[in-house]
Amino acid sequence: MFKTVATTPFDDQKPGTSGLRKKVPVFQQPNYAENFIQSVFDALEGYEGKTLVIGGDGRFYNREVIQIALKMAAANGFGRVLVGQGGILSTPAASHLIRKYGAFGGLILSASHNPGGPTEDFGIKYNIGNGGPAPEKITEAIFAISKTIKEYRIAESADIDIDTIGTQKLGDMHVEIVDSVADYAALMETLFDFEAIRALIKSGFTLRFDSMHAVTGPYGKEILEKRLGAPEGTCLNFVPLTDFGGHHPDPNLVYAKELYDLLMSADGPDFGAASDGDGDRNLIIGKGIFITPSDSLAMLAANAHLARGYKAGLKGIARSMPTSGAADRVAEKLKIGMYETPTGWKFFGNLLDADMATICGEESSGTGSNHVREKDGLWAVLLWLNILAVRRVSVQEIALEHWAQYGRNYYSRHDYEGVDTASANKVIDALRAKLASLPGTSVQGLKIAAADDFAYHDPVDKSVSEHQGIRILFEGGSRVVFRLSGTGTSGATIRVYIERYEPDPSRHDLETQGALADLILAAEELSAIKAQTGRKEPSVIT
Ligand code: VG1
Ligand code: CO
């Protein structure tokens, strides 16, 4: 029942920040998905007879690729595959299943916050046995194999029923269709005090959780409404749609504007949150106040001990380099390790496995801990709720008190999306070329203390990852960072990250863009993005 199919390589199957992401029509080319999946399997060793987890965020083409992956897993010798019912698994839930059932690894089908639909984005990511995204050594091997692949193996069989819970066989391989939510919800109950959160909600505390028509709908319904007793209507846009209702399932102030407006209104709820396409990102908004992801990381780290799963304290905190330094001050106070990694969750895996870090975060709305090896949107929401349930103060009070104690890191990211690739590369190359000459000079009255192209030396496996972003550090602790996105599917996206540290509490209520105005001008003077790309302004400001 297995056959070997001859194929020819595609030259564009290089995994980016988080797996291979392309437009759906690219994935629909004959053999395209098959080539990539075979390249993944060929880059691995010793999986025969072992377990593979497969699931995705439910976007268009999810079900088709799940069938292909199942048939290829059987033909390649996996012993068992666990599939989320209907092909649905949030990224953190998939990470948990891999860990809980001791799987060899997993295939996560998602393009995260990118739009979905017949002409939008799709993606495939391989996660290793610790539940985390494959490290660069593996993604590089996958890409190398994809460039020379000659054949793939696949079962000739009818499609598997992925909607009915239970076990089936595909050749010798067992296919288990599992509840997409149950194991994940049980894990959350071990980490957080559901009783306390239930009492908070019962006392009249109101919240909204916007799933943006993406994967967290069923997770939010089960956990927030069913287990925690939040009234119906707490979960918004909770029916997963293959095209996310035509929206970007990206929980930021641009794409979750309705939620933001609701939280800013006088009669709005106390707490609002949203998650992205595959459920690993989170947006946190308190009544009248947006919490930046960088601040959220710091505030969660400072209060985590209030939740059952983190009672013993944190071993360390890790953040991606462009993420603000707010968490660094918490680590300093707690006298625990602080690690600065390149963008992308794969770099946190070693630190978590080595128990050097407990909580990790990225400025791009990603926060998570050692409970899985992915960032986890709903986890961040529950940790916030647990903290609020214990402290019984508002989100705003937590933020103001935090800034008063640690100072405030004003922070913003400006994205120039859909820029032509050559101009984007020119911007970065030009910055790189002048790095050495910058220290000691001034722009917009700001003196440059240091400038470099960030390289990460992994303290665990000693691997080195270079060219991870251009950093310009100013005297006084402000900085601007430039890098190109590694998750887009058309053209290039230039990201500019801008940060200023403000210790003075009398200056903690400034409007963010205003507080960063001179740095924003400095970033443009240094990079000439607008001149190079012809853009007048960023396409997204977060
Ligand atoms: C972006 C974010 C990064 C995040 C990655 C995957 O990458 O900046 O922090 O880890 O997306 O997130 P890039 O290379 O486009 O800047 V997800 O939720 O899209 O899996
Ligand atoms: Co995501």
Automatic annotation (TrEMBL):
Signal peptide: none annotated. Keywords: Isomerase, Magnesium, Metal-binding, Phosphoprotein. It catalyses: alpha-D-glucose 1-phosphate = alpha-D-glucose 6-phosphate. Its cofactor is Mg(2+). Pfam families: PGM1_C_vert_fung, PGM_PMM_I, PGM_PMM_II, PGM_PMM_III. Residues 1-21 are annotated as: Disordered. It comes from the Bacteria. Coiled coil: none annotated. Its EC number is 5.4.2.2. Residues 13-152, 183-285, 294-406 form the Alpha-D-phosphohexomutase alpha/beta/alpha domain. InterPro entries: A-D-PHexomutase_a/b/a-I, A-D-PHexomutase_a/b/a-I/II/III, A-D-PHexomutase_a/b/a-II, A-D-PHexomutase_a/b/a-III, A-D-PHexomutase_C_sf, A-D-PHexomutase_CS, Alpha-D-phosphohexomutase_SF, PGM. One of its GO terms (molecular function) is phosphoglucomutase activity. Belongs to the phosphohexose mutase family. This is phosphoglucomutase (alpha-D-glucose-1,6-bisphosphate-dependent).
